[in-house]
Amino acid sequence: MIKDSESGRVLADLCDEGDTYVAARGGKGGMGNPHFSSSTNRTPRFATKGKLGDEHWLRIELKLIADIGLVGLPNAGKSTLLSQLSAANPKIAPYPFTTLEPQLGVLNFKHQEPCIIADIPGLVEGAHEGVGLGHTFLRHVERTRILLHVIDISSETVSEDFQIIENELRAYQADLVDRTQFLVLNKKDLLEPEELQKLEGYFADLGQQTLTISGLTGEGIHGVKAVLESTIDDLRHEDELAARASQESTQKTLETVLRKPEQD
Known about the structure:
This protein has helices spanning 78-85, 135-138, 158-172, 193-205, 221-263; strands spanning 2-4, 10-12, 58-60, 68-71, 103-107, 115-119, 146-152, 180-186, 210-212.
């Protein structure tokens, strides 16, 4: 994304392969001394200067393009989940902010084209204002179509942890909370069945689609893959229908334009 440095105005959004943008045009070149040669002046000793080109300051922002984004508090288990869903090998350690930059992995399906997963560094309260690693990395979830909100259900403040991330996403960009989202309840191996059932019921009452896993043991990972494959399939089908409708609309408009002279 290319922006004007002073006003912040978006000049170009290069999100498709092959997209280009001329940020500044060079000045017109001057004429060298051969241009002024003639039969009477075979070796002219003068030339003209070129004109100055465009000059201005730009800000270029990188936003990763991924189908699925992993969000959550530090140490929720996002990196572990990424390593279970793909062949990525992110750094995993028992302390906050282990992931200092977005990590990408490729999720392969049995009956679908693969998709890209982005592991976003852990967010904390106030991230939308730059607290912690802040919006430096929040922007990378803007392009994602599915959000996996990973929660450490062994935490004593599970409901508060969930609300913190939801509030940060909403404060950063309101429509992020309206994306297709699944709540991944991680570390089920640390809870008793009764506690786990109570938590699942709590989030179900909130209208959340939950997936319960243990990133450490791999329990529940196949279920996550199956849900993601089905969801990605539905989203791609919607894209195809939208593209077809757009193409038909363009064709009808073109036919209407071509008919008008005949009617006149």
